[in-house]
Specification:
about 120 residues; Globin-like; about 75% helix
């Protein structure tokens, strides 16, 4: 069953996606190192972020690029894994057109961050 994009379904996407990240051997150390014990606050912030992106809610205030550029040891494989997990969750929860919109936004964000880390896009 597919969901309409709203705060509740975006919260489901964020929470399910980050549950997988916390179990992922490659991504978990990076995220735990950056977030520490503040997972609940991070999840709420990510729900606000994706609501702002997908619903034009303007709930999120922050500097995504600046926050991420402070992380060390980021490699192309981190982006591959992140995008793969995100795509799996978006496609499971939303109809194709909506999932595609989520993925287009995720790929734009990933491309911007990859330019910051590598000077080019490694993973599309």
């Amino acid at each position: 069953m597919y969901h309409e994009p709203n705060r509740q379904s975006i919260s489901m996407l964020v929470r399910d996606f980050y549950a997988d990240i916390r179990r992922d051997e490659l991504l978990q150390p990076v995220f735990d190192g950056a977030i520490g014990a503040n997972w609940e606050a991070h999840l709420e912030r990510m729900v606000d972020f994706w609501c702002s992106v997908m619903l034009s809610s303007s709930e999120f205030k922050g500097n995504v690029y600046g926050k991420h550029m402070g992380l060390q040891g980021i490699e192309a494989e981190h982006f591959r894994r992140w995008l793969g997990l995100f795509e799996a969750h978006a496609r499971r929860l939303f109809a194709t057109e909506t999932a595609d919109a989520f993925l287009a936004a995720a790929r734009r964000i990933a491309a911007s961050l990859q330019y910051g880390y590598f000077g080019r896009v490694e993973v599309a």
